[in-house]
Automatic annotation (TrEMBL):
The chain crosses the membrane at residues 67-86, 106-135, 164-183. Coiled coil: none annotated. Residues 56-176 form the Glycosyltransferase RgtA/B/C/D-like domain. GO terms for cellular component: plasma membrane. This is Glycosyltransferase RgtA/B/C/D-like domain-containing protein. It is a multi-pass membrane protein. Keywords: Cell membrane, Glycosyltransferase, Membrane, Transferase, Transmembrane, Transmembrane helix. It comes from Cohnella faecalis. GO terms for biological process: lipopolysaccharide biosynthetic process; response to iron(III) ion.
Length: 196
């Protein structure tokens, strides 16, 4: 977290291009002006509204200085590191959890992007949360599916790549059930064979 925070505080990365347009729209939305929604940008790229409204909420709660958004980016990114650790540790073992978390924590683009007002941090956190819930809670229980779906939905609202995660989820469920079925069939077969 310290490395991300130092980068976000010391490296001046003023918003430009789309990031600037969304930030200005968020500032307007925080003041109650939603006229930006009918602009050419948002009529062409409506999926950016979710992230813009998220930024507007942060501006409304903490004020207009961009540093608040950058520090919150650091928190989302650090939270994602924790989720990577938690998930890999549960799926494999403690060593794998640590290795995955260290690799993610020190991956340079994840550090330098903390100072950029992008939708990647918050969306990645929620997509990773959905994956973590899947690994930790398994495929049973309606509330597990509800929480996984809610996490993916929030991630998708921030950055519309949820379809990739849903496809991966379907592959995971199919492979998991197939693998479990094969293991059960093997165990039944082994139990039937007489001991030699």
């Amino acid at each position: 977290m310290a490395l991300r925070l130092i980068w976000a505080l010391l490296v001046d990365t003023p918003p430009s291009s789309d990031f600037l347009f969304m930030h200005n729209a968020a500032l307007a939305a925080a003041k109650g002006d939603f006229s930006f929604a009918s602009s050419d940008y948002y009529t062409s790229w409506a999926y950016q509204l979710g992230f813009t409204m998220y930024e507007a909420l942060i501006v409304k709660l903490f004020g207009t200085p961009i540093i608040f958004l950058k520090v919150i980016n650091v928190l989302w990114s650090t939270g994602t590191v924790a989720l990577v650790y938690w998930t890999a540790g549960k799926a494999f073992n403690e060593f794998c959890g640590r290795a995955a978390a260290i690799a993610y924590a020190f991956y340079i683009p994840n550090i330098v992007m903390c100072s950029v007002l992008t939708n990647q941090h918050v969306s990645m956190f929620f997509f990773m949360l959905g994956c973590a819930l899947l690994v930790h809670r398994g495929l049973t229980g309606k509330y597990s599916w509800l929480l996984i779906g809610l996490s993916f939905a929030i991630g998708h609202i921030m950055r519309p790549i949820g379809g990739v995660y849903i496809a991966a989820l379907l592959v995971f469920v199919t492979v998991f059930r197939l693998f479990r079925g094969l293991l059960n069939a093997r165990d039944r077969c082994l139990r039937r064979q007489p001991a030699s």
